[in-house]
Amino acid sequence: MDATCAVILIDEATDRMRFLGTNLVERAALTAARAGITRVHLVGRGAPDGDVVWRLRRRGLIVTCADIRDGAFETAPQTGRLILLPTDVIIEPRTQYRARISRNVDVAALEREYLRRSNGGHTESASTRIIRKFSIPLTRQLVKLPISANHVTLAGFALALLAGWAFSFGGYWWGIAGALFYYASMILDCSDGEVARAKLTASPFGAWLETATDYLSYFAVVGGILWGDVAREGFCRHAQATLVAVPATVAIMALVGYQRARVARSNPGAFDDALAAQLSQGNGVQRFSVWARQLIKRSFLAHLILFQAVIGFLPALLEIWAMGATGALVVVLAVNTYLINNVRVEPLAAA
């Protein structure tokens, strides 16, 4: 028999409430599932919502139900350990976030705080925190729709492709259009992780899909800018810079992809946070890389592209890219062995 069972105590006052689009009873059960607990016992007055029970069983959980008037523990499955989870408490174990929900509390404020805390919080770069101001309100609406985080990832990638297409025409206003498309793509790039964590559906496949589309979006942008610049100016110094930028970028992606696969294969979504935490404890070069890595992230690139487009010097981004990618490759090589030996990521529960 299973060693642990989560007893979900259903609060009548909040039974029908939702938090980030998810029923509170379902959220409590899925929180237990994220800790590897596959057996849940729903206890309340009367029968729980049948749709909730069906969805939980569809996710692979073993669900039993009981009326609290018959005794919450007497009717619980015979297991080695029982863990009590009230439905009126929102928990995010990874960030130690905990909040009590009721009909009198500002649920919208709790949702915004949950999304901030569960997606990096104050440890994120300034550029990412700016984008969160747009992505969090969007995510609060997206979680109400029957879409997954993977749908959001693919929509963001489609916008990145549109950005590359707009850049390929060259010219000032096409550059502005492409920059706006790419910024919108970055908002969705933040939102997909928020949706996954909000719905408690984060998965290794979703993290790998996001990683792959992130990498491809870089080439969509650089390819579009290069095409537009060559069409107008020929193979000038901006285009020549791509001969350095592309190989260096590919090398970085290969190294980071190897690191992610080596230390976070079963939970790649947690890799960035674990990496930053480990580097911040290292020597001077390793601590410097925590700051330096922010300069090659998509959130910083989205702001840089928008700035370059507004001032009308978008092709110069290719030279900036070449210098940045070369420097970043040196930093990644310097910390690669340290990361492989020291970064550890806990596996993500399958449910």
Protein architecture, described:
This protein is 60% helix and 10% strand. The mean pLDDT is 87. The protein folds into 2 domains: 4-105, Spore Coat Polysaccharide Biosynthesis Protein SpsA, Chain A (Alpha-Beta Complex), CATH 3.90.550; 119-342, Up-down Bundle (Four Helix Bundle (Hemerythrin (Met), subunit A)), CATH 1.20.120. The protein is of the alpha/beta class. The strands form 3 sheets. The protein has a 4-stranded parallel beta sheet with strand order 5-4-1-6, with helices on one face. 37% of the residues are buried. The chain is built from 12 helices and 8 strands.
Notable characteristics:
single chain, elongated, Four Helix Bundle (Hemerythrin (Met), subunit A), 351 residues, 60% helix, 10% strand, alpha/beta, Spore Coat Polysaccharide Biosynthesis Protein SpsA, Chain A
